[in-house]
Amino acid sequence: MKERDLSHDDSQSDSYFWSDHQADDELTRLRLIEQFNDPSTLRQLDAIGVADGWRCLEVGAGAGSVVRWLSQRVGPAGNVVAADIDLRFLGDISARNVEVRRCDITQDAIEPSSYDLVHARNVLMHLRDPVAVLRRLIAALKPGGWLMVEDVDNGTVEAADPAHPCAAAFDRCAQARIAFLLASGVMDLRFARTLPVHIEQLGLIDVGNEGVAQVGPGRSPMSQLMIHSFRPMDDAMVANGVIAQSDASNAQRALKDPSFFYRGGLIVAVWGRKPG
């Protein structure tokens, strides 16, 4: 990964933290997100009732697992637009009902009143004005269309056993990441906690939400995802004097230790339907 200077306020750009990741590393991270998040995502999309013939917009399509599921669900009569700023991992999608589109959701044009479903996962936390983007997503819905948005509240990340030798360092790093990345303008690791409030205020109907957090050990798929996601952040915090190298090392060691149990981030999903 290229060096990134996180010591200044970068809040004037909607840059993606992992955009400099080497392709193999980023694909591994995206596959881990799919492994960890897809079960709840697909269960909720199924409950919404995605059906044959729907037109769907997948924002932040990543490595494409949700796009592939939607493509099969909507069938030949439907259409799925896979939108992302990084299309490296979507090139193998050959379904005729899928359009892969390079799109910066903060500024590029989106067809108004055109989609039966708009879905975004792990996107809004990276944006300078996520509520403005929520409004853009709602504007893209047909009357009666569904919005579903998911993000992670990392405020829940905490050692399950405070007596474990790595627990104190793990907890210090978890809290330091939240403050450091927010102050640097890189991302808001706690944005998801506000999602239900925003959805209630934006005029949708039939709204609902769900939060899911798991407790698991080091050396689990959740831990592999944490390692791939947070190691660059921890290195940046050490370089900027925010945490000690010993704390960063112990926090990473904890994620590789099957005797260390911890609570992961709260996956928050919200949904609602456009009136009409």
UniProtKB/TrEMBL annotation:
<dbReference type="Pfam" id="PF13489">
    <property type="entry name" value="Methyltransf_23"/>
</dbReference>
<keyword id="KW-0808">Transferase</keyword>
<protein>
    <recommendedName>
        <fullName>Methyltransferase type 11 domain-containing protein</fullName>
    </recommendedName>
</protein>
<dbReference type="InterPro" id="IPR029063">
    <property type="entry name" value="SAM-dependent_MTases_sf"/>
</dbReference>
<dbReference type="GO" id="GO:0016740">
    <property type="term" value="F:transferase activity"/>
</dbReference>
